[in-house]
Structures are given as structure tokens and as C-alpha cells.
Description:
The protein has helices at about 40-45, 65, 70-75, 95-100, 105-120, 125-140, 145-160, 175-190, 205-215, 230-235, 255-290, 300-315, 375-385, 420-425, 435-440, 460-470, 490-500, 515-520, 535-545, and strands spanning about 1-10, 15-25, 30-35, 55-60, 80, 195, 220-225, 240-245, 250, 340-350, 350-360, 365-370, 390-395, 405, 475-480, 505-510, 525, 530-535. With about 550 residues, it is an alpha/beta fold. It has a six-stranded mixed β-sheet with strand order 5-6-7-3-8-9, sandwiched between helices. Strand 15 (about 475-480), helix 17 (about 490-500) and strand 16 form a beta-alpha-beta unit. The two termini are about 35 Å apart.
Amino acid sequence: MLIASDVEIQLGARQILYPTNFRIQKGDKIGLVGRNGAGKTTLTRVLAGINQPTNGQVTGNGAKELAAGNVAEATRILGYLPQDTHVKNPKEAVLDRILSARSLDTLSHDLEQVMVDMASDDSKISDKAMKRYDKVEQAFLSAGGYEAKADAEKMAISLGLPEEILSREIGVLSGGQRRRVELARILFSRADTLLLDEPTNHLDADSIMWLRDFLKSYEGGFLMITHDTELLKEVVNKVYFLDASRSTIDQYNLGWEKYLKQRAVDQERRKRERAVALAEADRLFKQGNKMRASATKAVAARQMLKRAEQLKASVQEESYEKVANIQFPTPQPCGKTPLAATGLSKSYGSTEIFSGADLVIDKGSKVVVLGLNGAGKTTLLKILAGVLEPDTGKVEHGYGLKIGYFAQEHDLLDLNKSVLDNMIAVSPASMDDTAVRNVLGSFMFSGDDVLKPAGVLSGGEKTRLALAGLVVSGANVLLLDEPTNNLDPASREEVLEAIANFQGAIVLVTHDPGATKALNPDRVLLLPDADEDLWNDSYQEIVELS
Length: 546
């Protein structure tokens, strides 16, 4: 059980959450919702013990066990899936990473080593191994043994990780595959409490269905942030609404559809209460101002005016959805073919990702890159953007080329620099500080928010910051890798409209059917075979199933 006691969260001058109490118990399936930038990711980081609350405390999250060095017990208590997954050990095998949630990776290797030592020609080594065998095997079986190992493999495959990559090193995987590995690891942990921040990112339709069924039957408790309303509708039995304007959590012990109805009722009630309070404050102001001129009524007048001020101060502003104002730039002039690539190939170690990729990007052309996770879509965009070098082939820049690259993992953001400094770094020299701040304001970064390090931003905020960089770039070729990930529905619609209206060329990688519809592509490049074709409706069906 995870317990939040009088938890208060402030970021600089901004109040994210006033002192709040709640708990996540066995059987609780909680959807944490709220507008983009409300602080949902910040709250989960506090609950996970990564960040500390301004006041109050969180217990039952495994922090004490972790501080004491008991990693296995801490993992059993809490499983946390952040939006951004960072590889700590790129040499670690995929299956080992998943098994490590129950320390089965170490136990499995210990058992294998003991069995090797038992077969040694050196009697001292074999005798010692035989004495250790029962103890090592018992520890392995107590953690689930061969059955748990098979469950981990099945879980990975269900989340779209092909069996053949389970023995590969994590470092060679795509961002989407690494995300799936971490999700599999967290789910495999069978922790008492799960904190899941956008768990459906990078999942195809089949994997989302599997995840839905898994969460519906999960015996522990979990709190989940997601923009997938179908998942919320199917799975959650409680909804916590983080109201950014009131800095409070409205806790609804209701399923999704009943929550929507009750929240509408509550908003209407608060609206009426607000109107009544403001009307009463206005009446007291008028009456008090009339009475102040009379010496005999001066005390009563001051009391009336004080009461009016208190009423006005107590009125909560209405909650509203902020939406980023996203308009991609007017493209700079360029030649007929600003970007072309011939014979591109890329391998990681002995694993070939793709080969023989040819791509000609004419002025204003629209191209979608399709393929399964791990087919090399992100790698191809990195090569086109100049972030990676191909093993073979070349990328040619035409006259006037100006590339704007949106990286799926936000690789181009400097996480140690502030939001403002990141924007200044990509803005033209002609833009002064005020102009840069104005652009950030249109992407919902205002006041002290622009001084925050990019590393503390949520996935949705990093997406907005990266998109803001594209807006000031003047790019005539946009390379977009999953640009709608982590966005709330309203901001996603803004991105789709910006894609539809952009007059330059776009190369798009996406799992979002709405993005391909907005793009209205000319062509499609299929990876890993590097086959190119004219776009038709059958490819839209592939996107919808991916």
C-alpha cells in the first residue's frame, strides 16, 4: 500500500499541489488525469521517491528498502515506469533486464555457473559446486524458477518484442523497443503498487489489448497516467483529477464514464458557487464604499470591505484546458530536391537493421516511413538528420536545405540547460530574449517555467519544447519521429493541423493514424526491406493496426 500524507508540491513559485492525502491499495486501479502541464508526471516522481515533496511524506514506495540496499524488496513493493527510459547498462541482455525485476537474472546466471562448475575436471571446483547446488537452485526456484522465466519471455512477446531480440543487448534496440522492455520489466515485477506514466507509448494495437487485459486482472494496486481514453474506460475503477487551477486532486471512486458525468456536475456546481460569491463580494464592495464616508459607519464599512476581499480571494478560478499554439514555420526557399539519400544501410554489431535504402525528398513532398518496432525507422531519420552516420551510402543536401528534426526520445534537448536556454540555442540570431519567450508562451511555458531544467519536464512538456524549436527553425524539410507522443488530445489536434498546413517537405514516423491522415502522404518507405511505394489506403490500415 502506498500512502501520501499531507503531500504538498511546489516548483519554484508555482503551486503544483496543496497538502493532499490519498492511498493506493490492493485492487485500486486509478487513472490520474488533468490538463497538459498540470503536474501529473511531477506527482508520480514524488510518489516513486525520485523527487521529494515540499511538505508531507510518502510511505510504502520502497524508498526505505532501497536506501538500505535491499533492491529486491524495494522492487517487490513498487514498480515505476517513467515516460522517458534511459539505458543504464547498454550491454545488458534484454531478457536479463526483464528478469532483474525479481533478481532472476543473477539467480539464473548463478545456477548456470554452478552447473558448469559441477562438470569441471578439477575435483575441488566440482565438489564445491555440488555443495552449493541445492542452495542456489532453491533460491532460483523460490523466485519463480523456470516457470517465471517462461512468463517473462511470454510477456515480452505479448508487448511486441520478438523472441529473437531477447538475447540482444539493450543498447542496440530502438527507443520504442527499449520502452517495451521497461514496461515488461515493471509488469513482471508483480510489485504491490505500480506507477505507470503513459504505458501505451510505442505499443501497437495488439499489445495495448494485452496490456488492458493484464491491468484488468492485476491483483495489486496501480496509478496510471494515460491519454488513451479507451484504456481508462476499460480498466480504471477510480479517477484522480489533478486540477491545475486549484492545485488539488479531486478523487472520484468511480469508473471512467461515471466520472465524466460527475465531474461535469461538479464543474457546474462550482461555477454557480463562484457566481454567487462574486455577486456577494460586489454587493459588499458597493455597500462598504457608500458607508465609508460616514464616520459612525466607518468600522462597519471596513468590515464589509474586508469580507468582500475575503470572498473574492476564496473564489477558485475555473479550470480550463490550455492548448499549445503550434504552427510550423514558413519554409525557407530551397531547390527542387533539398534532400536525397542513396544506398543507406546500418547495423549494430552483427545485427543488420536495414540496407539499400534510397529516398528522394522533393520540395514539399510528404513521405511516411513504416515498419515494425526495430525495423530502423528512428535510425533512418537520425541518419537523414546527420545525427548518425550510415555504414554504407550517402545523404546529399540540395540547395537551401534547412532540416528541422523532432527526435522521438528528445535526444536534441540539453537536459541540464533551462527551457529558455534550449530555445535560445536553436533560435535564429535575429530573435531577442523577448521574442523567444513569446514563442515559449504560445507553447505554455511562461514565467518561471522557462527557467526550469529540461531534465525535470514531463514527456508532454519535452514534446512541446522540441516542437517550439521547430517553429523558430525556418525548416523546409521536417523529420518527425512520433510527434504526437505524450500530448493531451487538444495539443495533439494542434500538431495534426500544423502537419496538414505545412508547405515544406515532411518525412514522418508515427503510430498515430491521425497523423498520417493529416499529412496526406505522397509516398511510403517500408523498412527494413527499404521498398518504396505510392501511398494508398491499404497503408493507412497498417498504421491503424500498428
